[in-house]
Write a structure and sequence with these properties.
- The complex is a heterodimer of chains A (176) and B (461).
- By secondary structure, chain A is an alpha+beta fold.
- Chain A has helices spanning 2-21, 122-134, 144-154, 160-172, and strands spanning 28-32, 40-46, 58-64, 75-78.
- Chain A has a single domain (6-172), classed as Ubiquitin Conjugating Enzyme (Roll).
- Helices cover 32% and strands 13% of the residues of chain A.
- Chain A is globular and about 55 Å long.
- The mean pLDDT of chain A is 86.
- By secondary structure, chain B is mainly alpha-helical.
- Chain B is flat, with a radius of gyration of 58 Å.
- The N and C termini of chain B lie far apart (151 Å).
- In chain B, the strands form 6 sheets. A 3-stranded antiparallel beta sheet of chain B has the order 1-5-6, with helices on one face. In chain B, strands 3-2-4 form a 3-stranded antiparallel beta sheet.
- Chain B has helices spanning 7-10, 78-87, 109-116, 135-145, 164-167, 191-198, 215-224, 248-254, 257-262, 264-296, 303-314, 320-335, 344-426, 444-456, and strands spanning 46-47, 67-70, 75-77, 104-106, 119-121, 132-134, 150-152, 161-163, 176-178, 185-187, 204-205, 212-213, 229-231, 242-244.
- Chain B has 5 domains: 17-149, 2-Layer Sandwich (Herpes Virus-1); 151-198, no CATH class; 229-258, no CATH class; 266-340, no CATH class; 343-380.
- Chain B contains 14 helices and 14 strands.
- Classes of the chains: A alpha+beta (176), B mainly alpha (461).
- The A-B interface holds A 3-4, 6-7, 10-11, 14-15, 70-72, 101-103, 112-113, 117-119 and B 13, 15-17, 41, 43-44, 58-62, 80, 83-84, 86-88, 90, 92-93, 95.
- Bound molecules: zinc ion (7 copies).
- One zinc ion binds at residues 122, 124, 129, 131, 141, 146, 148 of chain B.
- Chain B: Residues 57-95 form the RING-type domain.
- Chain B: Residues 1-36, 419-461 are annotated as: Disordered.
- Chain B: Residues 436-461 have a biased composition (Basic and acidic residues).
- Chain B: One of its GO terms (molecular function) is zinc ion binding.
- Chain B: Residues 194-248 form the TRAF-type domain.
Chain lengths: 176, 461
């Protein structure tokens, strides 16, 4: 197992370096939680103002890679303050189809084409995350309250969802 | 506690993951067959050159290893696609359903060849091997040749590994002995490493600062020791000061050559220009001398030459040059003027130069003359030509007049002849015979003959 892990660690190290060197992910910075553990990344997401609900927010998340990466997907867990979002569990775990293994039938409504595949990279994951923050998916709610409020706001009933999101953004900036 | 850096620890992943048994894997190199030869972990290879993106496996992001292509024409390492297939039966790139073993085939020969020729470093480069070879040859190198690769200890009783170079001594070196410097027990095999890197007693003093360092680090330290004497940075432009490395910044602040260094390129440029000017100056001086000589002794301009020719013809065996020399000397002694030329060569050169300039002048005036001649010729011939053309046209006009007059005359004659014939007929037939009689008017004889011919072929009017 040690040999396999070291190959995976090498792959992750190269992918981390590529992200840190490249400019393909504006507003995102990645680093290791601990220098001796290549399998746990810390990701800072500085969302730009185009993002309707979370623009201006600074959110922090952990990317946890399994030993079997890239055969199995990593997990992404937002740290406090967790964004109030239909697809993020209150404990911070992100629910996004690209991080679901293809064999898993628990999410039957998802097209297999959106699921994890070993050719995915941290970069493609983070791009999907940004897109999910821009347009939440209310069909598979991880946070039922957020999903209900989001749907109500989409139907023009009130602006409660946006208010909750802005509060989150202010918290993320340490203002509340 | 084993001493650090024993050979076992230094080995980079000797026991790679055993290969997955899958279709086609019989073609992949079987590295686990014998225990005595070192095995090679292809995934840990270090590639010397950047590898083309097309040759990178989309799963492990390393250069493809034993590449296989799917029915949807995506290529992966055999190991990678097998692992992915164990989780999902879809192509990782485009999710086309894939069934083993029918839906994957060995990648194209050209791809395999390209991969085989990628240059890699020997995996034992950290042990000291500098070998760089193609990926297809690295296995041979490690299993048969590399003297740094670990092999079983030659002593059958010993289960430890030893690098191939040490194994050649054919004895087990896995025993400990005290270090000659620090007297600590060290395994015989790693004694050299201990002395070079770790032994606290074998440290050598730096020749500049007398601090002690392990032998392996001494050279590095000495090259950058603060106490080492180094020449000033501006030695190139003339500073001869040598200072200790640490004092260099202090010296540089006060070094008078700093300014010069900045002007360095300017200085060299000017130096070049000066040498050029000096050369030209010498030439000018010589010319000046020659001119001076000519102006002060206008009669002498021919003197040395004529004398030289005369003496060379008279004095046998005496070379022309010697004669010229003599001429120069005599000239100097008689005139009291310093000799205009420092040597015979210079005099000849001056003569040559003046001849050349005269030649140039001649050439120029010749060209001038030629030009003038051409212009003159043109000037003179042009009116003649014009006159000729005029005369030709005049002649043509006159010829036309003549022809017109002649025609007029002929017609007139013909009419006259016709009229006289009519009158002859009116005068009776007697007139018929009058023709054979001689015509009383001589001048009309020619006209008669003409009219005869006209009568034979009368003009139709
Ligand atoms: Zn691969
Ligand atoms: Zn495919
Ligand atoms: Zn080698
Ligand atoms: Zn031994
Ligand atoms: Zn020692
Ligand atoms: Zn020193
Ligand atoms: Zn100096």
């Amino acid at each position: 197992m040690a040999g396999r892990s070291s190959a995976t660690a090498g792959l992750l190290g190269r992918q981390l370096k590529a992200i840190q060197k490249g400019n393909d992910l504006p507003g995102i910075s990645c680093g290791l939680v601990r220098d001796d553990n290549m399998f746990e990344w810390e990701v800072m997401l500085m969302l730009d103002d185009d993002c309707k609900y979370y623009g201006g927010g600074n959110f922090c998340a952990l990317l946890k890679f399994p030993d079997t990466y890239p055969m199995s997907p990593p997990k992404m867990i937002f740290q406090n303050p967790v964004p109030f979002h239909p697809n993020i569990y209150p404990d911070g775990t992100l629910c996004i189809s690209i991080l679901h293994p293809p064999g898993d039938d628990q999410y039957g409504y998802e097209a297999a084409g959106e699921r994890w595949s070993p050719v995915q990279t941290p970069e493609t994951i983070l791009l999907s995350v940004i897109s999910l923050l821009n347009s939440p998916n209310d069909e598979s709610p991880a946070n039922v309250e957020a999903a209900t409020m989001f749907r109500a706001e989409k139907e023009g009933k009130n602006k409660d969802f946006k208010k909750r999101c802005r509060k989150c953004v202010r918290e993320s900036l340490g203002e509340d | 506690m084993p001493p650090p850096n024993t050979p076992e620890e230094g080995l980079p992943e000797v026991d790679g993951p055993s290969r997955i048994n899958s279709p086609g894997s019989s073609n992949s190199p079987n590295l686990d067959s014998t225990t005595s030869t070192p095995t090679l972990n292809f995934q840990a290879l270090e590639y010397v050159d950047p590898v083309d993106q097309e040759l990178i496996c989309p799963i492990c992001r390393d250069p493809l290893l034993d590449p296989y292509t799917t029915v949807c024409e995506h290529t992966f390492c055999l190991e990678c696609i097998c692992k992915a297939h164990a989780i999902s039966h879809d192509c990782p790139t485009d999710r086309t359903p894939i069934h083993f073993p029918t839906d994957i085939t060995k990648a194209a020969k050209i791809v395999r060849n390209q991969l085989d020729s990628l240059r890699v470093r020997c995996p034992y480069s950290t042990e000291g091997c500098n070998e760089i070879c193609s990926r297809s040859q690295v296995e041979d190198h490690v299993t048969k040749l590399c003297i740094f690769a670990p092999v079983d200890c030659p002593d059958d009783a010993c289960t430890k590994k030893v690098c191939r170079r040490d194994a050649a001594r054919n004895e087990c070196l896995h025993f400990t002995m005290p270090c000659e410097h620090c007297e600590r027990p060290v395994e015989c095999l790693s004694m050299q490493r201990h002395i070079d890197h770790d032994c606290p007693k074998s440290h050598q003093p730096c020749q500049h600062c007398s601090l002690k360092f392990p032998r392996s680090a001494l050279e590095d330290h000495e090259s950058e020791c603060d106490d080492a004497m180094i020449p000033c940075d501006h030695a190139g432009v003339g500073c001869s000061v040598s200072v200790k490395q640490r004092e260099l910044p202090v010296h540089l602040r006060s070094c008078p050559y700093t300014l010069l260094e900045k002007l360095g390129s300017l200085v060299t440029e000017q130096r070049d220009k000066i040498t050029q000017l000096e050369k030209r100056d010498r030439e000018m001086e010589r010319r000046l001398k020659s001119l001076e000589f000519h102006t002060m002794h206008p009669s002498c301009s021919e003197y040395p030459r004529s004398r030289a020719i005369a003496s060379s013809t008279t004095a046998d065996g005496m070379g022309e040059e010697a004669a010229l020399d003599e001429a120069l000397r005599s000239n100097a002694s008689t005139g009291g003027v310093p000799p205009p030329f420092e040597s015979m060569d210079q005099y000849l050169l001056a003569l040559y130069e003046s001849a050349e300039s005269k030649m140039d002048n001649l050439q120029k005036s010749l060209n001038d003359l030629e030009g003038r001649q051409t212009v003159m010729l043109l000037n003179e011939t042009m009116p003649i030509k014009e006159q000729l053309a005029e005369m030709r046209s005049n002649i043509g006009a006159q010829g036309m007049h003549v022809r017109w007059l002649m025609n007029l005359r002929i017609q007139e004659r013909a009419r006259n002849a016709a009229a006289s014939a009519m009158s002859g007929m009116g005068g009776g037939m007697s007139g018929l015979g009058s023709d054979s009689h001689g015509d009383p008017e001589d001048g009309r004889g020619f006209g008669r003959r003409l009219s005869d011919s006209l009568r034979e072929n009368p003009p139709r009017l």
